[in-house]
């Protein structure tokens, strides 16, 4: 299996989702860029460019999941992206395995259509407001099973990813994050979380300037 790159916005959204609902299990969808997939097809590298927060209390309501996935797929196609993975954080602090995660059937369905899909589990035990490690466990679908990805094959888009997400959590940006449960309660809410995307882009720009100077 090849390397998996996590762009900062994807990592930020999934961690902010878990931070917003620490008392709940949460889950979401991971997207990859279709053009980059074609470039990396030979060595099976995968670049996760975005995350879409799904639920914090509707995990087991299949009609809700179908509505969400239909909308996500439509938006993904319009942006030349594909559904390439799934993430989840367990409700119980001690549970950090796939078997304990909500919505596993969604992950299995994704793997049917995208055979090299990834499954990210938030590691609650390492999740703090000041991240000094990734605080995630990653698995990749291979030969019909979810297999752990070596940590040295998990790459962040830039060296500022942990610092950026820590900064967002300390500013309580998680309260601004919208998942599909929020959207279904109020259809005016933006489940694409464009405001957070703009904030992350702004922080990345500042960090790049500081690094180059």
TrEMBL record:
<dbReference type="InterPro" id="IPR037518">
    <property type="entry name" value="MPN"/>
</dbReference>
<dbReference type="Pfam" id="PF03665">
    <property type="entry name" value="UPF0172"/>
</dbReference>
<dbReference type="InterPro" id="IPR005366">
    <property type="entry name" value="EMC8/9"/>
</dbReference>
<dbReference type="GO" id="GO:0072546">
    <property type="term" value="C:EMC complex"/>
</dbReference>
<feature type="domain" description="MPN">
    <location>
        <begin position="4"/>
        <end position="145"/>
    </location>
</feature>
<protein>
    <recommendedName>
        <fullName>MPN domain-containing protein</fullName>
    </recommendedName>
</protein>
<comment type="similarity">
    <text>Belongs to the EMC8/EMC9 family.</text>
</comment>
């Amino acid at each position: 299996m090849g390397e998996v790159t996590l762009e900062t916005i994807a990592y930020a959204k999934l961690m902010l989702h878990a931070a917003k609902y620490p008392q709940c299990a949460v889950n979401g969808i991971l997207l990859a860029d279709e053009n980059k997939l074609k470039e990396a097809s030979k060595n099976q590298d995968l670049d996760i460019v975005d995350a879409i927060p799904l639920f914090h209390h509707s995990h087991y309501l299949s009609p809700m999941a179908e509505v969400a996935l239909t909308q996500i797929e439509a938006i993904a196609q319009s942006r030349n992206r594909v559904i390439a993975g799934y993430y989840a954080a367990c409700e119980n602090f001690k549970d950090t395995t796939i078997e304990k995660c909500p919505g596993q059937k969604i992950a299995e369905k994704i793997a049917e259509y995208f055979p090299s899909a990834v499954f990210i589990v938030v590691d609650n035990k390492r999740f703090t407001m000041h991240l000094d490690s990734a605080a995630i466990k990653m698995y990749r679908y291979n030969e019909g099973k979810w297999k752990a990805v070596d940590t040295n094959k998990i790459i962040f888009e830039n060296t500022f990813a942990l610092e950026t997400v820590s900064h967002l959590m300390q500013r309580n940006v998680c309260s601004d994050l919208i998942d599909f449960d929020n959207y279904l309660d109020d259809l005016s809410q933006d489940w694409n979380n464009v405001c957070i995307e703009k904030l992350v882009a702004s922080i990345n720009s500042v960090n790049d300037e500081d690094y180059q100077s």
